[in-house]
Amino acid sequence: AGNGDHQGSGRVGGDGVMIQLKDLCQKASSNIAQKDLEGHEGQYPIYGASGLIGYVDFYKQENPYVAVVKDGAGIGRVMCLPEKSSVIGTMQYILPNEGVNVHYLAFAMEHMNLAKYFSGATIPHIYFKDYGKEKLLERTEKEQKSIAEILSKMDSLISLRKQQIAKLDDLVKARFVEMFGDSVANTKNFPSTTLETVMTVFPQNGLYKPQTDYVQDDTGIPILRIDAFYNGKVTNWNTLKRLICSETEIDRYLLKENDIVINRVNSIEYLGKCAHIVGLKEKTVFESNMMRFHMDEKKVNAVYVTEVLCTEDIYRQILRCAKKSVNQASINQEDVKSLEILVPPLSLQNQFAAFVERVDQQKQTVQQSLEKLELMKKALMQEYFG
Fold first, then answer.
1. pTM, whole model, 2 decimals?
2. Which pairing describes strands 221-224 and 285-286: parallel, antiparallel, or unpaired?
3. Are the C-beta atoms of 84 and 61 separated by less than 8 Å?
4. Residue 121 CB partners (closer than 8 Å, separation 6+)
5. Cβ-contact 308, 295 below 8 angstroms
6. Residue 68 forms beta bridges with which residues?
7. What is d(CA 386, CA 378) in angstroms, rounded to the nearest whole number?
8. Residue 155, SS3?
C-alpha cells in the first residue's frame, strides 16, 4: 500500500495519504463452537478470546492473520496469529491484502481501541462495517515492515520484563517452602496457633461510600480497593481512586503501616485475597469489602503472615468457613481470627522478610524498566498511528 515519500523511515510524515482500515484487509467469519472441538485432537492451534485453547486436527487459515474478539468478554482484543491455525466463533478473521504486513496490521488495529465500537446490552459485539472505517496513513510495504519490527522488539522486551517479575515472585515462594516446609503436613514441626492470638488489632470492616462520592482529581482521600493489590502487595499507591470524606468520618478506617488487609466478600476465586501495607505516603482508607488487622510484631513478622495467607492451605480454610451465595462468597471477622497458621521462630520469619525485601528491590528495578518500555511503546504507537 503506498505513498513512497517516507520509504524505509518507519516514521510518520506530516503529509501522507489517509486510507481506511478496510482498504488493507478482508474479514472472514468462524462458525466453530468450543463444543465442536471434542474428538479433534491434533497438531494445529486453535484460539479463543483469552488466547490458545488447544490443538486440533484441522485448520482454517493457511497464512498468518489478525484475529479480533467480536463478541462477549474481551471484545475488541486484537491478536496476530500464526499460519495453519483457527479461531472459534466469538472471534473474527482479519486477512491482510497483498502487500500488507500482518504484524503492522495487528499493531495498527491494537492502537484503534476497537472496543469503542461495541453495541448490544446483553452480549456486546463489534462489526467490521463500523471499525473498518478507521483511518490510518497509507504506507509502503517496506515502511510497514520497519514499523512492525520496531514494535515487535518493544513487545519482546515488555514480555521479558514481565517474565522476570514472575520469576522473582516464584523465587519468593520457593524460598518460603525451603525455609518453612509444607504448611499442611507441618514438615518442620513448628507450633501452630490461630491468627487471633498473634494480633494486636482485630479485624475490622472498611468504609462504604457510594460511587457519587468518588472524585477524579487529587482533592479526595485515596481508598484501597481489591483491584489495587496482587500477590500479597499493593501494586501502585499512586493509582488509587479517591473519594470525598470528612476527617471524623475516616478516622476508624485509616490504614496503618504494616497492617494486613484481606478480601472479605467477592466471587469465590478472589475471596481471602490479601495485601501487606507497606509504603503509605498519605492518609488512606480501605473499602468495605475488605478487613484490616495488625499483627503483634513481638510474635510474628507481617511479611511472613502475608505469605502464609497467600497459601493454598489458608484458601482451603477460608472456603470451609465461607458463606456462599449464587454470585459471591463472604467471610466474617470471627472466621479470619480463627484461621490457623504455623509460628516458626521469629528470627526465621525475619530472615524470610529480609530476603523478600531484597527481591522486592530487584522487582522494583525491573518494574521501572517495564513501565518505561510501556510508555515508549505507547509513544511510538501514537507517532505511527496517530
1. 0.80
2. parallel
3. yes
4. none
5. no
6. 78, 92
7. 11
8. helix
